[in-house]
Amino acid sequence: xxxxxxxxxxxxxxxxxxxxxxxxxxxxxxxxxxxxxxxxxxxxxxxxxxxxxxxxxxxxxxxxxxxxxxxxxxxxxxxxxxxxxxxxxxxxxxxxxxxxxxxxxxxxxxxxxxxxxxxxxxxxxxxxxxxxxxxxxxxxxxxxxxxxxxxxxxxxxxxxxxxxxxxxxxxxxxxxxxxxxxxxxx
Length: 186
Description:
Strand content: 25-35%
Number of strands: 10
Shape: globular
Mean pLDDT: 97
Strand order of the largest sheet: 5-4-3-6-1-7-10-9
CATH superfamily: Dihydrofolate Reductase, subunit A
Structural class: alpha/beta
Distance between the termini: 15 Å
Largest sheet: 8 strands, mixed
């Protein structure tokens, strides 16, 4: 059975976007990006909301990272080599290979995919991840905490959800980023 993970880069006060909708403050340095590569290398299927998918589709075109550092080029390959499902009622077509659209997020369908999959899965986008967390589908949460307080915006975790967690790993980076890996207790 596959595990479903949620990974988010967020501010110290828990936001993936600030009040203006920006996440420029969250750009990972090389070490943090290499960790993101490591986490995504194990993922066979990414579940995205429309907005995050539209941000991530940048990685589809190898020309976007050509000449960039090896860890950036590697992430592009990892992204292109994985399957992607975009949950959207408004997106008409996808602009990446190995990608399909689902109009509704049905927890029982995701549970079946987890049961049938040999590769781990990830859910991305704070809103979609919130739905998956509320449905009890998420097994692991990886928070990459940026060394910044933004004072408001889109929260990384849903309001009103109470969930016991087991701390699996903590890693501090010289840049001030920290990685917290939690396993959800079920």
